[in-house]
Design a protein that fits this description.
There is one protein chain. This protein has a 7-stranded mixed beta sheet. The protein is of the alpha/beta class and 183 residues long. Helix 3 packs parallel to helix 6. Helices cover 34% and strands 28% of the residues.
Length: 183
């Protein structure tokens, strides 16, 4: 059996597997909603949840961090999140939206994922935090499990940048540059 055609076939298929999501640069972000849990809000000292929809995204330049409900996924692109915080971007023109797929948490840790998301909302009250209990956004956008996706949107929710997995330093600079250039 000749292995070269099989290797060529696998090599041709792998790039498609790595970017199987439905999000395309230059297109509007695909419509997605979360009604089980949803956007985390602070009401006085209390945490509340409200339905969330991608239709709420236009109006500001955004970085969407769509992550599995796992600490490894949260840490994957912490460098970009730190760079965004350090940049002190104007809140009237920019917002980070973190969408946490609670359905993609290690078995038995869903409560910890929710508690961590609520703590993050308290710490970064200006950020939009969405707890997706059923994984609707990840399913709609066909995002990889146990992973992190970074999506940069302009003010009309057109995709400027998308990558699943850990961004390298050049990609961190590219994403941050796109945010700054579109404010």
């Amino acid at each position: 059996m000749n292995k070269k055609p099989m290797i060529a076939l696998l090599a041709a298929l792998l790039p498609g597997l790595a970017s199987a999501h439905t999000i395309q640069v230059g297109e509007t972000i695909p419509a997605a909603t979360v009604s089980d849990k949803g956007e985390i809000t602070i009401q006085g000292d209390d945490i509340a949840y409200q339905n969330w929809s991608s239709s709420q995204l236009p109006g500001k330049v955004r970085v969407i961090q769509a992550i599995a409900g796992r600490s490894s996924a949260k840490e994957m692109n912490a460098e970009l999140m730190q760079a965004i915080t350090a940049a002190s971007l104007p809140s009237d023109k920019y917002q980070t939206t973190t969408i946490i797929n609670q359905d993609d948490a290690i078995w038995g840790t869903g409560g910890f994922v929710a508690s961590s998301a609520e703590d993050s909302k308290r710490e970064f009250s200006w950020s939009s935090m969405v707890l997706d209990a059923e994984g609707n956004v990840h399913a709609t956008w066909e995002l990889q499990e146990e992973n992190s996706a970074i999506i940069v949107l302009d003010q009309e929710s057109k995709v400027l940048f998308v990558k699943e997995g850990k961004l390298n330093p050049s990609e961190v600079e590219q994403a941050l540059g796109l945010v700054k250039n579109n404010l």
